[in-house]
Specification:
single chain; mainly beta; twelve-stranded mixed sheet; OM_lipoprot_carrier_LolA-like; LolA/LolB/LppX; OM_lipoprot_carrier_LolA_Pbac
Length: about 190
């Protein structure tokens, strides 16, 4: 079966197994529902890169300069404006998150229930529902086209929806060994909740 005919779940599982590293750009829109009508809320954009399992750098460039980075062991959130770094253990912080489903281990069925939800504008969509009850997300929609994810729809437990568009997706680029090592910027305040 060619990738073109593969369902969203089939394409996604193949992507997870065959894509060890990747990089690209994203645009994230927070949707707001006002009187039953969805409206676009704040928009942010930036770049991402990842290496399995559990290493990634998700960099917000607009409107705020922030970096969410994981080195396989710890999760770092750096807010440039506040000059503050929050450091958390990677383990549970990521297991059922959108980052885990894109960048984590290949053992998806352990953490998510996945099902195909059809084609919209030439994109095969699947829905992933976290198995853990403490996940901040109720459902994660993933749009697949030509074997790579092109979009995500993240619905949190408060009913809010974030729509993420992925573009300029490059599969399996090579990264240096220390690419995902986080260096705390000089003078930054470090928080360890």
């Amino acid at each position: 079966m060619s990738i073109a005919q593969a369902s969203g779940v089939e394409q996604f599982k193949a992507f997870v197994v065959n894509t060890k590293t990747a990089k690209g750009e994203f645009v994230q829109v927070q949707m707001k529902t006002v009187n039953g009508v969805s409206k676009m809320g704040k928009t942010s954009s930036g770049t991402f890169k990842f290496a399995r399992p559990g290493k990634f750098i998700w960099t917000y460039v607009k409107p705020y300069d922030q970096v969410l980075q994981a080195d396989g062991d710890k999760l770092y959130l750096y807010d440039k404006d506040l000059n503050q770094v929050t450091i958390k253990s990677l383990g549970n912080a990521i297991a059922s998150s959108p980052a885990a489903i894109l960048f984590g281990s290949v053992d998806l069925d352990k953490n998510f229930v996945m099902k195909d939800v059809g084609v919209k504008q030439g994109v095969e969509w699947l829905e992933a529902i976290p198995k853990t009850k403490d996940s901040q997300f109720e459902t994660i929609g993933i749009g697949m086209k030509d074997g790579v994810p092109v979009g995500m729809e993240l619905r949190d437990s408060f009913g809010q929806l974030s729509v993420v568009t992925l573009k300029n997706f490059e599969k399996n680029p090579s990264f240096g060994a220390d690419q995902f090592k986080f260096l705390v910027p000089q003078g930054a305040e470090v928080l360890r909740p």
